[in-house]
Protein 1
Amino acid sequence: MKNKYYLLSLGCSKNTVDSESIAQILNQHGMHGVGDPTHAEVLIVNTCGFIDAAKEESINALRELVDIKTANQMVIAAGCLSQRYGKDLIQYVPGLDGVIGTRRWMDIFDLIKRLRKRKHPEPMYHLPTDAKVVGLDERGVLRASVQGASAYLKIADGCRRPCAFCAIPKIKGTAVSRPVESIVAEAVRLQELGVKEIMLIAQDSTDYGYDLGLKDGLAHLLDEIVAAAPEIPWIRIMYAYPGYVTPRLMETMAKHKQVLPYLDIPLQHGHRETLKRMKRPAKIEWVYETISKLRQTMPELAVRTTFIVGYPGETDEEFDALMQFVDDLQFDRVGVFKYSYEIGTPSATLPNHVADEVKQARWERLMEHQQQISLAKNQAFVGKTLDILVEGHGAGEDENGNLLDETISLGRSYRDAPEIDGYVLVEGELPIGEIVPVRITGATTYDLIATVDTTKPQIIKPGTIYSEGMIDLDSIL
């Protein structure tokens, strides 16, 4: 049990990267990770504190570990919930041994050493207010989470945006960009590991480099990564901020074959007044113009966005405008969230909160409307060939859900980010971790159905679409 740790990571991909980095630091100090908490000296939960459901999950996970720990074990809360509640977290989870915040998670082993030396059972805290990032040039920590042939690579932490509904700036602090050379070195390291896809992540990826004095920092970073790691086929941009998708970024994405024609740009709403109350960019015309320019620059572009319904003060007129906005712009992927009341955020003090049943009804209407758009978008790919990154295998099912003898391969195209978008289901057993061209033979609301296309080269330009005549969808499904 001595020098062994159990680490549970909750929340988003950015949290997953932090968890991987915590594990690397502990490993550097001679500790070893285990999958069974009863076999570990140190039990860590990297918590999420963004919305109520995530907070509840994190608190429950901590309580479960506190309930089973022995006198020789310690339970440490890390992550967003720790930073948000600080010393008050002990009120929700009596018996916690340590609390460490998001801004100095890299000091985790120092906290463990202090806990080992303590003479009394009182909890210890490590909650500095200053934020710091870690790169290869500092502690040898790879700020990435490798999952199969894909990897999330964190380029910055924190956020300086004033969004009224979001607690991230209070939790993470202001935006702190990692040095270009550190990120590029890690991209090269990921290339050496055989990674096929890098996803650049931050709270706001388009703000990368602002604090470093860089103009168009994300475009500059992409140029450097592509030059240094030319053997990585796919580079994907996540979490772009409206108003900061610049002409240079568009041109950079278009000119590099490695950079996928995919953009995740959370817009949050489509009505000017709602966006003003959200303290978000409210120039709707910019969105129409920018999406049009993006599609002209990259005709194969896939755009993903997210919206919040039921925000305080959202009227029927404002929601109808959002519906029209979605209809006008025809996004490839849309995530819809019901507004969640968050104590300590500016939105919590707004009047005219929307009733839960109204939020639910609006969520259902918008989801149903987007499903029709998503289905039509997917159907347009029938008869074409796409590259997919193969992620796994499974047994096929008939229309009644009965398992079949045939094997199905599960993959993602350039249009699909892990966990949040769709899949491509392919007949047969394809090599996991490889990029394979497949012919699309069918479509559902979220996924595509395909067969292997043996007439195409193994590696093609990401986003390339081959059209050789449309197939009658009704004859397939």
Protein 2
Amino acid sequence: MRFFKVIIGLSIAVISMAILAFIATQTVPGFEISSYRTLFNTLTGRGIDSPSQQQINHLIAPEDFQVTLFAENIPQARILKITPTGGLLVSSPSKGTVFLLQDTNGDGHADLTTALVSNLNRPHGIDLHKESDNHWLYIAETDAVGRIVVNWQTGKTQGNYQRLITDIPSSKGHWTKTIQFGPDGWLYLTSGSSCNVCEEKDPRRATMMRFQPDGSEGHIYASGLRNAVGFDWAPWNNNLYATDNGRDLLGDNFPPCELNLIKQDGFYGWPYINGFGKLDPDYGQGKDTLLNHSISPSFGFRAHNAPLGIHFLRHPDHNQNYKHTALVALHGSWNRSTPDGYKVISLQWGENGNIMSKDFLTNFLQNGQHIIGRPVDIEEGPDGSIYISDDYAGVIYRVLYK
């Protein structure tokens, strides 16, 4: 098995390098490269070394917050989840592992890293669910959703890992699967498209699905979502919002990436409609009637900013200045003539429902060209700490309210 994993890893690297070499020699209308290194990161998950302390010192946060490095050497660090005992879980798809990080001496830095569950197939989404006396850890692999019991007091698993949902489409295209339990007790799962833009053969691609905790009663909850990696519920009204990445090859500034208010049985446009009611030049011809049924975004991000994780702030320390606020990780462009994104922003809902945005943690793109990080996900600790994963540098930042 190890031999085949090595062969597969080498094959991916060789194919990725071939793609990079091909792109470097081509002129494709509407196709630009922000950074070949970030493109390689997008294709393979491989990133750069951890940033230096000097680079970290140049990250810019709001005046009342302090930025430190919580953990490093976590290859392709992606989705985060706080445990009941205050530990931090992080998925590492390239390692096939979900790690448990613990700060045992309280100095603000993880000093104990445990490979909690390994030998997984590109694990991404993670969430926790208590059922009777069992504390389950749910894991979304690229082709399945499984679970295992964990004793959070000891930080050890109990029994075997059980795959509950095993037929998730994963043959090509967007490979990540994100899961979360909703306020209704159902398990929500997003599955991205198999392509940049196409009509899917499998109706479960480019959707959000919903299942019972045991994996039964699965159905499509919302469709037309090209790649909704992050989603969360607004704590003041339980509205469900999801980020979505717009398609490529239509230039630097179109279409916008999206924040969508997800409604059951809602259709969100892809592949026929982009952004705020614009018919797609490739697949939108003759689809005018769909404009009457497609739900437009609640908020538009800049094109190719690649919004991923979204987290509504819930800790009491944040309520005064960050009431009705979500943080969103902008992974950053790989396909613009100039790099853009590479930061965490805050979205604040006004009394009239309008959404205002402002920067929260910036300068991962330094001097306009040098990229030291690509934010992925956001989680809130019991003390109000805000954790931000970075799959490019393989680190997790801690942003603490002073």
Protein 3
Amino acid sequence: MKCTILSIGDELLIGQTLNTNAHWMSQKMNEIGIDVIHHVSLSDEKSDIINCLNDALKTSQVVLITGGLGPTSDDITKDVLCEYFGGKLVFNEDAYRNIEKIFELRKRLINESTKRVAYLPDVCTVIPNTNGTAAGMIFSKEGKTIVSMPGVPYEMKGMVTEGVIPYLKEKYTLPYIFHCNILTAGVGETQLADRLIEFEKNKDPRIKLAYLPNIGKVRLRLTIKGDNKEELQSLVEAARKEVVSCIEEYIYGFDEDSLEENIGHLLRERNFSLGTAESCTGGYLAHLITSVAGSSDYFKGSIISYANEVKMDVLGVKLETLEKFGAVSGETVGEMIAGAFSQLKTDIIIAISGVAGPGGGTPEKPVGTVFIGIGTKDKTIIKKLAFTSHRDRNIQLSAVVALVMLRKFLLNQLND
């Protein structure tokens, strides 16, 4: 079964508002076995709404519409759909009582514009709005389902969860769908694909494997869809085990796991404490580490030595080191590690210095040149890396690669 999502609102088209609704609805439809084939953003114009709806109904059995149900003059979706499906607007007592309840809590009076929200097409099934004033509407046409909901995200989400999904499950016989996400880091998608050639050649044809690269990471998604729940679960689990056996050293987790959480587990296993000394990343690495609840168990802090004066005054980097080798060098990173040990008194230190860009590069050290070091009091590893010409990407890559290096370092320590 196929679905099209129509997102109405000029604010989406001019880039004023990010369309997170379509992203979320796609996930929810996928979870119940409905394939979303189109996302369409369109203006608050009658002709656009009608044309896009006609096109959607040519290819999809389910159409989800958000936006244009409020009390203002630019909210025309309800009127357009009422006319499109041959109905007329009638006063809905339940919808009005919901508005009264909300306005009473807010200690506000209901004006005529707001009262108009309670008028709904007589040809729709009403979806109650437990989080706002504008009710949702379900229309049917030639066995197809058209759902109109407010564009306010938390209102739409309540309707989808409480009303739309139960309705679709009751109306249609939907297949089962199972996903398994295998999370990798420190390896590119091409290398992974090379390692998985035999798996892809011999896997059950019903199983789809997708490579989803992100900054410094690749998510592998196994998907299977069908009618036999137990068989599907068994097949996807067997496929997961086979993929793991091929690329185990790169895997840090599954589904909703994070690299930061995985590293936290490893640090706890060894009872190691961690600190960072950051230059070009400006604290972004520390931010990732502390995004994990409970990270205070192992993370002591970070020294953001963005300026050379801080490198010297706080971390004890020597002036001659900076003059001879530069702030972006393995020698400076090594001294940053030593200084951070003295200040933070942790078991492990990560230090980063680089040229994030867009300026500051030289022929010897172009933008994207980064040195990352990991050290204990007995052992230090420093790597020179070449990233991109884009500042934000260099900052993110530096932090992720530092975490990947730390993970490998910890695994080697744990295996000693």
Protein 4
Amino acid sequence: MSDQQTDAYSGTIFSGSADVLTRRPQEAYAKMRAAGPAIRMEGSGVVVTTREAMTEVFRNPDIYSSQLPTGHFGNTRPLIPIEIDPPDQKKFRMILDPLFSPKNLEHLAEPIERLVNELIDGFIDEPEIDFAQQFSVPFPSRVFLTMFGLPVEDLPQFLRMKDGIIRPFHVLGTSLNDPRVQELRETTAASIYDYFNGVLDQREAERKDDLLSKFLDAEVNGERLTRNEILDICFLMLIAGLDTVSASLDCFFRYLAEHPDARAALVADPALSPQVVEELLRWESPVMLVSRIATEETELAGCPIHVGDAVHPFIGSANTDESEFPDGDAIVWGRKANRHLAFGAGVHRCLGSNLARLELRIALRVWHARIPNYRIKPATELEYTVGVRSVDSFPMVLGESL
């Protein structure tokens, strides 16, 4: 989704701007739902706002396809498995889901905790830090390097590749309409393919105890992943798995910095961290929306849907929908039946959701054991990006409560 599209939504559905929608979106979501469960926006497709309408979209991948036009991110093939629909998708999920099960991720808990402590060691004595640059951005990228058995020295290269695809307009200091944006994405995409091709050559010669080696050896019914399929999985994990965890941390820590009583409960009882993660995933919805393409003429909650329409479920709106969460405006650690859609739903539910939860739980627990008090630097207004609510800079004062 473009900045222009988001401006169109914010300007038409509620009185405000894209900045309001990304910084504190809950009020905007309420106004979206009041406007209708499915709303056609001229030039932007159909916005889906309610839990019920969104469930229909996610339950019908044959009608609402995830096979978006190839090449938007500079990729030369569909990204696996998110841009592959059933029945072809089934093979990939059968191979990948076990690799990302909670049991298969248990061994990462200790190295993730070490990493969190290592990052905190680097700034704990400083009175002021940039939380984004010193923690939320490098943390998930370092976890990625660990999982793939890659050297930590490659971190700057990984961050350049991620930003060249996800936020090329920030890299270039321009708008999404600048033709150089797509040129940068295509150049960056080529570098991603080249990088992982080189690493896979090494793993073909000698296996390691890492995810890439498991990709090479995994099979279903005697069928293994091809080289291109592995490359397409790695491409997706790079652009989808890093920014989303960073965004979650940015959103979570802003909320906790602004609500010392809620933070104090976590400090007093670190065992709350799983509940805090789930409730803030619901309330903040760091990934605001996903996109689908309609494959047939249909109707969604009274809104006509035409073949080729872009359909945008605003999962953040579903996560504060009063029909699902009667007290959705309240933040409740330990909320019962917290059936949020922060990781999507249906056959395309986020492959990395278990890993993201593990990273977030450990980060919250370890951070608040070591740094119980912090606040956003006074006179700072965090500037969130569109779609995935991350920030480039997060000035934070350590050792001080509000």
